[in-house]
Amino acid sequence: MIYIALLRGINVGGKNKIDMKQLKQTFEQVGMNDVVTYINTGNIIFSSDSLSKTELARALEGAIYNDFRLQIKVMVRSVDDVRGIIDAIPDTWKNDKNMTSDVMFLWDEIDDESVLENLVIKPDIDTVKYVPGAILWSVDKKNVTKSGKTKIIGSKIYKQVTVRNVNTARKIYELMSDEIVE
Questions:
Q1: 41 phi and psi, to 5 degrees?
Q2: Which CATH superfamily is domain 2-80 in?
Q3: Bridge partners, 106 (sequence order)
Q4: Which of 96, 99, 134, 168 has the maximum number of C-beta atoms within 10 A of its C-beta?
């Protein structure tokens, strides 16, 4: 099975620095196969046939702690999980000079549509959609400072998501799909 490990909070603002080549080796040493990293923010595609997503996350968190002495939360999602999220993103959503669109991957504990009730959503500014596994959020760049999205940082929910922009999320899925073909 092809998976993505999404690491929360590495190589951001000079904190929790992890070299991607070393991280790849860490994954391989704990039995992950076909390991590919994508950009420096903790996106690791790999294959494994022996453990559940929860078991994989635990094993990877332990290996990262052993090798880097960092307690990093790891979210593991299958290619099918990611496909469902990517298919739900409107084709017009981008992350460019005019628009900011993000995928907020949800930890299992809060993966339910009711999570939207705890967010500040400004309907005239924000376009927000729940899909199993994620919250999709888009806003015109000119309105970013007025968006409810800025209210998430520091909230209880923020600690239970890991965010990737839609361009990155689409590329991750593309790389995962390439692994299936090879």
A1: -100, 15
A2: SP0830-like domains (3.30.70.1280)
A3: 161
A4: 134
pLDDT tens per residue, range 69-122: 999 999 999 999 999 999 999 999 999 999 999 999 999 999 999 999 989 999
H, E, C per residue of 42-98 = CEEEEECCCCCHHHHHHHHHHHHHHHHCCCCCEEEEEHHHHHHHHHHCCCCCCCCCC
pTM given for the model: 0.92
Q: Annotate 109-124 with b (16+ C-beta within 10 A) or e (fewer).
A: eebeeebeeebebeee
SS3 24: helix
Q: Tell me which of 3.40.50.1820, 3.50.70.10, 3.30.70.1260, 3.30.70.20 is the CATH number of domain 81-165.
A: 3.30.70.1260
